[in-house]
Sequence to fold (55 residues):
Amino acid sequence: MHGMEPGMRVMYPQHPEWGIGQVQSVVGDRVTVNFEHVGKLLLNLAVVTLEQVEA
Fold:
């Protein structure tokens, strides 16, 4: 279980240049995140690991 929920702030360590993202939606392993510098992206949590950022 990945524990991602809408509203969480996250970062993708492999692409720190994307900035901080906010989780928009979660459906199974697929999560939509709105990142500061690249906008909304659909990511597959079976393939990528996101780190939660404390507010």
Notes: The beta strands are 9-11, 21-27, 30-35, 39-44, 51-52. The two ends are 22 Å apart (CA to CA). The mean pLDDT is 95. The chain has no helices and five strands.
